[in-house]
Write a structure and sequence with these properties.
single chain; 468 residues; alpha/beta; Immunoglobulin-like; TIM Barrel; 11-stranded mixed sheet; 8-stranded parallel beta barrel; 11 helices; 22 strands; 27% helix; globular; signal; glycosidase; EC 3.2.1.45
């Protein structure tokens, strides 16, 4: 046969083969944690292949044409205690742990958001501020301001983290002003004296400036951790009218005068009091300085975040703290619970982030302060000298942090009581679906996207992150 004629006869076949290859069904990868611990955030070997969709039981339908809030990241609080344990590790062990936590390649989990305490939290060895004075003394010019103990652990650890991920978001939260600024002159409880509102605003300005001078950019601050819980040590009672007054007449103008772009986030407490942030945002003089509201979930319902969104849809929402604990040496892991309540619950209610409490503790949950510290706060990792144990909080954040990178946006997916889920589109166009099986039995279901579907199964209590 003439060579040219044979080529012409073969051309339709070659063209058809090319078209078939281009339309080959997408594949999804699955990272899985099983309640029986047989898989702990592990990539599954077999890819899942999307095929033309058919009616086959319950289906989670993904619609990336309908979008919600952008995502800033997922992570933990780097308390002073966390930093203390990390800095005491050998250089090689510390570098390996920080890479695992903050890098995204391989099996690293890509933590992208960190919360720091401004001064001590209740998970420090001792209580301190950046301007402590002897009893009866004051420092209204902040002459003695100094980052002090943070220079020994928080700052060097943060510098190593920033070397791994220079774009990580950092939130700062104070547990208490210096005691001399307070009505009871104590680190625990009391209220901020009105005559020191302006001084305390300058104190927070100096914190941001000093951290920046150390190479640590503070993206946002909250005004007060748990402002309605004055029983912690340290702590402060800061009711909504006082917080609004402080922002509109002192902190906001101080930020503006200093040229500070750090975001101001209000409330930073439980979901049982959405009226607190709403009342402050109702004041135009305060709201012009405010980026959004922060929430914990030790009380109330996560749906309260949507109430705040509906009242002020132009303001952002953040999930800034929740302790996640598992029983030591348990043969099972209750992964579905925090993923449903926090990763899925907060983001389905407009939160731009999810932060869990806290990054690291030792086997005895130390350190914590006296007179109100937390003796049961388990770390995402337990550090015993150079040995590292990964706990429930670690795996629950990993299911989101590795793949739902900053700049992702939440997209629509239909929810279910027994298969709660949330979906995202990443900056590079990938789709990420996080599903928790909260039922008492294994469940099969389909994931439908653009007319194609894949069928998969999750054992009871398991969590899967699907990426395509």
């Amino acid at each position: 046969m003439n060579k040219n004629i044979r080529s012409l006869l073969l051309w339709p076949l070659l063209f058809s083969t090319t078209i078939t290859y281009a339309q080959k069904a997408d594949q999804a990868t699955l990272w899985l944690t099983k309640a029986d611990r047989s898989a702990l955030f592990e990539k599954q070997k077999d890819a899942l292949t999307f095929k033309p969709a058919t009616d086959n039981g319950f289906t989670i339908t993904i619609d990336d044409k309908k979008t919600y809030q952008p995502i800033d990241g997922f992570g933990f609080a780097l308390t002073g205690g966390s930093a203390m344990h990390i800095i005491r590790m050998s250089p090689d062990s510390r570098a390996a742990l920080l890479k695992e936590l903050f890098a995204t390649n391989g099996n690293n989990i890509g933590v992208s958001y960190i919360r720091l305490s401004i001064g001590a939290s209740d998970l420090n060895e001792k209580v301190f501020s950046y301007d402590d004075m002897l009893a009866g003394q004051t420092d209204p010019t902040l002459k003695h301001f100094d980052l002090g103990p943070d220079k020994q652990d928080v700052i060097p650890v943060m510098k190593q983290i920033l070397a791994i991920n220079p774009a990580i978001k950092i939130l700062g939260s104070p547990w208490s002003p210096p005691a001399w600024m307070k009505t009871n002159e104590d680190t625990r409880g009391g209220r901020l004296k009105p005559e020191y509102y302006g001084v305390y605003a300058k104190y927070l300005v100096k914190y941001i400036q000093e951290m920046k001078a150390n190479g640590i950019p503070i993206d946002a601050i909250t005004i007060q951790n748990e402002p309605l819980h004055p029983g912690n040590n340290p702590s402060l009672l800061l009711v909504a009218p006082d917080e609004g007054e402080f922002i509109k007449n002192h902190l906001g103008p101080a930020f503006k005068a200093a040229g500070i772009k750090t975001k101001i986030i209000i409330y930073d407490h439980n979901a049982d009091r959405p009226d607190y942030p709403i009342s402050i945002l109702n004041d135009p003089a305060a709201r012009k300085y405010i980026d959004g509201s922060g929430f914990h979930l030790y009380g109330g319902d996560i749906d309260a975040l949507t109430d705040v969104h509906n009242a002020h849809p132009d303001k952002n929402l953040y999930f800034t703290e929740q302790m996640v604990v598992e029983k030591e040496n348990s043969t099972t892991i209750n992964i579905a619970s925090p993923v449903k309540r926090l990763i899925i619950g907060a983001t389905r209610n407009w939160s731009r982030n999810v932060l869990e409490w806290n990054l690291a503790a030792d086997p005895d949950y130390k350190p914590y302060t006296d007179r109100g510290g937390c003796p049961m706060c388990q770390g995402a990792v337990t550090i015993d000298k150079n040995a590292v144990k990964r706990n429930l909080a670690y795996y629950s954040i990993a299911h989101a942090s590795k793949f739902v990178r900053p700049g992702s946006v939440r997209i629509a997916s239909n929810n279910s009581d027994t298969l709660p889920n949330v979906a995202f589109k990443t900056p590079d166009g990938k789709k990420v679906l996080i599903v928790a099986n909260t039922s008492d039995s294994s469940q099969s279901f389909s994931i439908k996207y653009n007319g194609l579907a894949v069928t998969t199964t999750l054992d009871k209590g398991s969590v899967g992150t699907y990426i395509w």
